[in-house]
Every structure is written in structure tokens, then in C-alpha cells.
Design brief:
It is built from three helices and 45 strands. By secondary structure, it is mostly beta strands. It folds into five domains: 2-193, Jelly Rolls; 197-333, Immunoglobulin-like (Sandwich); 343-408, no CATH class; 420-478, Sandwich (Immunoglobulin-like), CATH 2.60.40; 485-574, Immunoglobulin-like, CATH 2.60.40.1220. The strands form twelve sheets. Strands 14, 17, 19, 20, 22, 23 and 24 form a seven-stranded mixed β-sheet that branches. Strands 1, 3, 4, 6, 9 and 12 form a six-stranded antiparallel β-sheet that branches. Strand 35 (456-463) and strand 36 (468-478) form a beta hairpin. The termini are far apart.
Length: 576
């Protein structure tokens, strides 16, 4: 044990590399690779950190601190038939945020949990991770310290250990070792399994999880590979066979799996059905021969009009202990669509967006692309520019796409101009735009012009060739000249028809007015808020006595410089 402990510490100091070893791996250089967390994590999804790994990126899990401990949870690629891992190693590197005595250690819990075949294997590491990267290595064998169900349980038998590896359902690595809130990191997880298959090693086809993706070729027959040229197949032991099946098809009787050309010596090919091939080891077939054979397999469609949609081909290798893990080729067939017939339309500015596919004639295939770009193929007159838009119907990347165009014109609303301020006494003429076919002013007339001589809100409603629009303009007036007033100095309310009333005449338009008439003792005998209201010489309901009265007047008017306030006073002689 002392030697093992020293070996672990050395690995943590210098790092390790499996080189060309056949393994299932997670290096976290581009993402979290679907790793999760269970027990007491703040999130069931491990957080990917692009830096700080050993080297590159790594994953991190934060403790929810609700009482339990948490584990890193391995994704699907570490599950399934891993019988080839028997007698090999599980390796990883991790760190903890806190190894001090500030929090109590949590003991009696397994550090590694491996489940499968209805059994649970647990492992207790000789030491815990440090605050910097610490490397671990665990031998996958019944005599390496594993226990059944719990740390003080019995050691598994060889058959029990291999039963677990043949159908792994869960792999957990402990991340929390002390009470209280903490976090931990994980990097470079390697499971030596003696077998590895990736249908697209550099993922250039866009497939994940060791699969492969391809679009159909144009023309008939449709022949599509089920693996990339960089297919990677590694195995420490000879393979028994590889089974390929078309597990998702669309056109019965027209689809099959077929091999182009010959295949390596020692391999035998059995075609059980049109979509079911079996490559078998003739006794001395190398792993590379299986890889070469897979590169020659094609999905084949003999029809002229295949049903668009996805096809799936499963690739399942077999070793000495059964199936080693299925891989999938995802094949998409999409025949070139129809763009329909070119069309044109006229829209009104401000109207609702329209689907331009409805402008095209014929039966255009949806799902294509508009040039210039139109999200959802909807033209919005308020946001998009009028002009010519081309519709490129959907088609596989290698096929020539059908194209049609839509020419769009947008009729714009007319404008009466900006709101205007005029001087009292001036007039303004509004003109109906020439492109209107019929119209009506706010006064109900259909004249070419509207003469304005007073403040107000003026409107015009009219039709263009295809659209109806309206616009308004507000007109206000100012007193552009000084406001003169005239206040007579005498009047005689004797009903003779001459000078029977008295008032102040203003030469301007006022917005507020107040007038008060007082006797010689200061009594208010008359008041008015309208200069048109004249004093008839009354005081209440009786005639005011003759004599001299004092008046005070105040008014406000709008001028180009703003609101102007004036105050004046004088006297008037009442004669009877």
C-alpha cells in the first residue's frame, strides 16, 4: 500500500497519459460531455469550466449543503457492455475546495460506485483529493479492494465483477469529503476497456457520441456512406463480428445496405435481409480489416422519389463477452423542393406582415431560404425594404436548388407636414397629394385645397392605388404683434341707444382675462372674465350711482416668445 500511495502522488505531480491505450475517455476540452451529479449537488448538471484543468478545461460541481454528500455521475458512454475493462484500470484526476479541519470529515461512504447486472460494487480510496489536481487509478478486478454493496461488505467473485462490467448502469465518483458547503473539480477520466469505435473520429459530420451523420446524394440511386473516412476502430482482442441493421426506413422494398466492391480476406459477409448485414471473423481477421469493411458499406435507395426524412443504421460489434456497444449512422434524405412560380404584390405601409410563400404561384415547398433573409419568410412592411426577394427551395447540400422571386412594392402614407404655428390674421393652404385617387378633408369637402385661418386639428383621409391612409396636422396661432386695448373714459346707461354700456376692447386673442370695476370706497361693483361682456352701469340688481369708478384689467396671450401677461388700470365716468 505504501508503494501504491507513492505511485498516486507521483502521478498527481507529473500527470499521466494513456497514449494509444484503447479507452473510454472524458477530457472536458470542449464541454461537460454530459456528466452530471447526484446526492447533494446544487445542480444535477456538472458545470463546464473551459480553463483550469490538467490541462485545458474541466468540470465542477457545487455542493447544495443540505446534509448529504454528492458524486460526479458518468454519462452514457461509460455505461453498457464494458466487459473488456476487466483487469484494466479506471483513472481520473480531481480536486476539492476544502481539506482543512474547518469542516468535519465525512467517513464511511464509498469513493467509487459501479452498478450493473443487478449488483453494486464500491471502492474506498486510500486518500482523499487535495486542493490541487490529484490523480487516482483503480484496478477493475475482484481482488483489487472492491466490495459488494457497502465498504464492509464481502469481496465480489470474478463472475460477479464481470457481470457488473457486462451491463454497467451507473458509474459514480465521490466529490465531497467534508461537511459544509464546498465544490470539486474533475478531469481526464479514462476507462481502459480494450475496445473503441467512432464512426466519425473528428466529428466533422456533426454527429455526437461516436456516431456519423450524412445527407443524401442527388440523383438515383441514392447511395450514402454509413461512416466517415476517418472511422476509428481499436480493440485489444479480436472481434467476433459486426452487425449492421437499417433500423429506421421509410420505403419498404426500395432500401437496403450494400457493400461497394470487395472486402478483406478472412471476412465473411451474410445478408440476412435487405437492411441487415453481418460481417463475421473467419478466424484470422484483424481489427483493421473490420474497419476497412465498414468504410465500404452504403445505404442504398433504388427509387426515383424517396420519401424525405431520416434513416438510421445501427453498427453493433461483438467480442468474446457479447455486444460491445452500438453506434449509429444518421442519414437524412431530402429531395430538392419546388420554389413555385415567381409573383409580385403591392402592400400598404403599416399593414400586417405577410407570408411570401402565399405570393408565389404553384405549390412551393416550405422550409427554404429567402434572400435577402426574411425570418419565417414573413415580410413586414414596417421593417423590411421593398424590392426583389428570392426563394431558394430546400434541397440537400449537393443538389441544385429551385429558385423563384417575389417583387414587392410598398405604398407609403402621405404627409400633411409638421404641426404649424401661425400669426393671427394669416392663412395657410393645405394641398391634397397628387397621387391620391379620392380624398376627404376633416370639414367634409373634397376640394384640392383647404384654407386654414384659425387654430385646430385638421385631417385628410384618402386612397392611393391600393391603400387607404390618413394624416393630421395641428395648427396653432400666436399674437405676433403688440396687444392694444381701448377703454372708454365715460358712458351713460340711460337706454338712449348711445354709450349705454362700457367694456374694454382688445386687439389680440387672449387666453385668460379678468376685469374688475370699483367705486371710490373700493367696493367691487362689476367683474368679468370675458372682454365681450359689457358693464351696463348696474351694481347687483340696482343702478349704480353716477360718478367716477376705477377699473383694473389683466389678461394673458400667447406670443412667439411664450405666454405674455399684461395688467392695466384706469377710471371711467358713469353719467346718468
Amino acid at each position: 500500500m505504501k508503494f501504491t500511495l507513492y505511485f498516486f502522488v507521483l502521478l498527481g505531480a507529473i500527470g499521466w497519459s494513456p497514449g494509444r491505450m484503447v479507452a473510454q475517455r472524458s477530457t472536458f476540452d470542449t464541454g461537460n460531455e454530459d456528466w452530471g451529479a447526484v446526492g447533494d449537488p446544487a445542480s444535477s448538471v456538472a458545470t463546464w469550466v473551459p480553463t483550469g484543468g490538467n490541462p485545458g478545461g474541466h468540470i465542477r460541481v457545487l455542493d447544495a449543503a443540505t446534509g448529504d454528500i454528492w458524486y460526479f455521475l458518468a454519462p452514457a458512454k461509460f455505461r453498457g457492455n464494458k466487459c473488456g475493462a476487466y483487469g484494466r484500470h479506471l483513472r481520473w484526476e480531481q480536486y476539492c475546495s476544502d481539506t482543512t479541519q474547518a469542516h468535519s470529515p465525512v467517513g464511511g461512504r464509498p469513493d467509487v460506485v459501479l452498478m450493473g447486472g443487478g449488483l453494486t460494487l464500491v471502492y474506498d480510496l486510500p486518500y482523499i483529493p487535495g486542493t490541487s489536481w490529484t490523480a487516482f487509478e483503480v484496478l477493475l478486478r475482484e481482488d483489487a479492494g472492491w466490495r459488494l454493496n457497502q465498504l464492509n461488505g464481502p469481496a465480489p467473485t470474478r463472475d460477479e465483477f464481470q457481470s457488473v462490467l457486462t451491463n454497467v448502469t451507473a458509474l459514480r465518483i465521490r466529490g465531497e469529503y467534508r461537511t459544509g458547503p464546498d465544490w470539486g473539480g474533475l478531469d481526464n477520466v479514462w476507462l481502459d476497456i480494450g475496445f473503441y469505435l467512432d464512426l466519425d473520429a473528428d466529428d466533422s459530420s456533426g454527429a455526437a457520441h461516436d456516431g456519423f451523420k450524412a445527407d443524401t446524394l442527388c440523383g438515383s440511386p441514392y447511395a450514402v456512406p454509413i461512416a466517415d473516412a476517418d472511422l476509428l476502430l481499436l480493440a485489444d482482442e479480436p472481434l467476433d463480428s459486426i452487425v449492421l441493421r437499417l433500423v429506421l426506413a421509410k420505403d419498404a422494398g426500395q432500401e437496403r445496405l450494400q457493400v461497394l466492391g470487395g472486402w478483406p480476406n478472412g471476412l465473411s459477409l451474410i445478408e440476412r435481409e435487405a437492411g441487415w448485414l453481418v460481417w463475421s471473423n473467419g478466424g484470422s481477421t484483424a481489427v483493421d480489416d473490420f474497419a476497412q469493411a465498414l468504410r465500404q458499406v452504403r445505404y442504398w435507395h433504388q427509387g426515383n422519389a424517396p420519401t424525405p426524412g431520416d434513416r438510421w443504421v445501427s453498427v453493433l460489434p461483438y467480442g468474446r463477452c457479447g455486444p460491445l456497444g452500438v453506434r449509429y449512422a444518421y442519414l437524412h434524405i431530402a429531395r430538392a423542393g419546388e420554389a413555385g412560380y415567381s409573383g409580385d404584390t403591392v402592400l400598404c405601409s403599416g399593414s400586417e406582415p405577410i407570408d411570401l410563400l402565399k405570393v408565389l404561384g404553384g405549390s412551393p415547398t416550405p422550409g427554404g431560404k429567402w434572400i435577402p433573409d426574411l425570418p419565417g419568410g414573413r415580410f413586414d412592411p414596417s421593417r423590411n425594404s421593398a424590392g426583389i426577394y428570392s426563394y431558394v427551395a430546400p434541397a440537400p447540400a449537393t443538389c441544385v436548388a429551385d429558385t423563384a422571386v417575389v417583387e414587392i412594392a410598398v405604398e407609403e402614407p402621405f404627409s400633411l407636414g409638421s404641426d404649424t404655428i401661425l400669426c393671427y390674421g394669416h392663412t395657410w393652404r393645405l394641398r391634397a397629394p397628387d397621387h391620391l385617387t379620392r380624398w376627404q378633408w376633416s370639414d367634409g369637402t373634397q376640394k384640392p385645397f383647404l384654407e386654414i385661418d384659425r387654430p385646430g386639428l385638421y385631417a385628410l383621409r384618402g386612397y392611393t392605388a391600393h391603400c387607404f391612409f390618413s394624416d393630421t396636422v395641428a395648427v396653432d396661432y400666436y399674437n405676433c404683434h403688440p396687444c392694444f386695448f381701448y377703454a372708454p373714459n365715460a358712458f351713460s346707461p340711460n337706454d338712449d341707444g348711445l354709450n349705454d354700456t362700457w367694456r374694454i376692447d382688445l386687439s389680440c386673442v387672449w387666453v385668460r382675462f379678468w376685469l374688475g370695476v370699483f367705486d371710490r370706497w373700493g367696493n367691487l361693483v362689476f367683474k368679468s372674465d370675458d372682454p365681450q361682456l359689457a358693464w351696463a352701469g348696474q351694481w347687483g340688481h340696482r343702478a349704480a350711482p353716477p360718478g367716477v369708478y376705477v377699473w383694473v384689467a389683466e389678461w394673458e396671450s400667447d406670443t412667439p416668445e411664450g405666454r405674455r401677461r399684461e395688467q392695466h388700470s384706469g377710471d371711467v365716468l358713469l353719467v346718468r
